[in-house]
Amino acid sequence: GSWWELCAARFVAGLSDGMVFCAVPLYFSEVADAKVRGLFVSGLIVMHLTGVLFMAVVGSFLPMKSVALFCVSVPLIVFLTFLWLPETPHYYVVRGDLENARRSLRKLTAKVDVEPEIGHILETMDDCDGSKGKLLNFISNGNSRRGIVILLLIRTVQQFSGYVAFVFYLPAILTEASDFVSPVISTSIYYTLQMTFALISMVTIDRVGRKPILVFSVASVTLSLSVVGVYFLVQGYGYVNLKDYSWIPLLGLFLFISGYSSGLHSIPVLLVGEIFPIGVKVLAITLFDMYYSIVSSIASKFFQYTKDEFGMYVPFLTFACCCAC
């Protein structure tokens, strides 16, 4: 297709992604039990990565038009099935429509008596009634401020973890390591590892807890960034002939994506829907998704500038320091 068709497609895809990553965590936070909420929100990431893996593998063998025509069937099925998806009871309670809230709860819980759940929602709404959707109250509230600081730090670390660096340099890393394994196989391994560790995180996050998984994820990412950064430092200054060690960035890439997918990829999305009260949850999710996009652009530009001006090792070691701190 022409360039404007591709630009239009990317615009629509970006718009859709923004809606999905705002609406789905909010929906799960309102309808899912706390014991399985992590499972559902992490499942969103797993489904996203499944699609990426499919596109990476199938896209290597089929033309873009064929892949696009095949993939359009999935959102079409989702659209048709979502027409029967019940609205959250919180949505109705906020608008004072308790009867529809009860109907929604009966569909979601398969219970006849939902009065205890309705009472709990009403109690929760009363606790945060003074801060519904108000930006000033959201910022001035002490509990919200602590949540804001936590999410700002985690979202910043998420973007300055080097994910952008690895994604941008992925073709070069795969080409450099082609003597050991073909780029097609490496790409398949990369996305399979990403999906596998996201799946492991999905089934363990509610049992192990958010903090241990996040600590493991950040530690793995820091180690992999440090290894690859040192490799590029040695390569840049020509201390050692690294031709026989060109597999090191590939190993670092696999270690990085395993660690990143296990926690840093999904937990920030989950936390936004968990740590803020119902009255400001919509506002919080929207603001932090906007912040995510802004920091992502900054991290991308930082990587490109430092790589061109100082060498590849600078952004990798900088990202490693950001994660270590």
UniProtKB/TrEMBL annotation:
Sequence intervals crossing the membrane: 6-28, 40-61, 67-85, 148-174, 180-201, 213-234, 246-270, 282-303
Q: Which residues form the Major facilitator superfamily (MFS) profile domain?
A: 1-325
Give the taxonomic lineage as stored in the record.
Answer: Eukaryota, Metazoa, Ecdysozoa, Arthropoda, Hexapoda
Which superkingdom heads the taxonomic lineage of this protein's source? Eukaryota
The record's Pfam families line, in alphabetical order, gives: Sugar_tr (PF00083)
Native organism is: Photinus pyralis
Q: Annotated Gene Ontology MF terms?
A: transmembrane transporter activity
Name the UniProt record assigns to this protein = Major facilitator superfamily (MFS) profile domain-containing protein
What compartments host this protein?
Membrane
Which keywords annotate this record? Glycoprotein, Membrane, Transmembrane, Transmembrane helix
Entry annotated with the keyword Transmembrane helix? yes
Question: How is this protein positioned relative to the membrane?
Answer: Multi-pass membrane protein
Q: Is the keyword Acetylation assigned to this protein?
A: no
| InterPro entries, per the entry | MFS_dom, MFS_sugar_transport-like, MFS_trans_sf, MFS_Trehalose_Transporter, Sugar/inositol_transpt, Sugar_transporter_CS
Where mainly found?
A: membrane
One Gene Ontology cellular component annotation? membrane
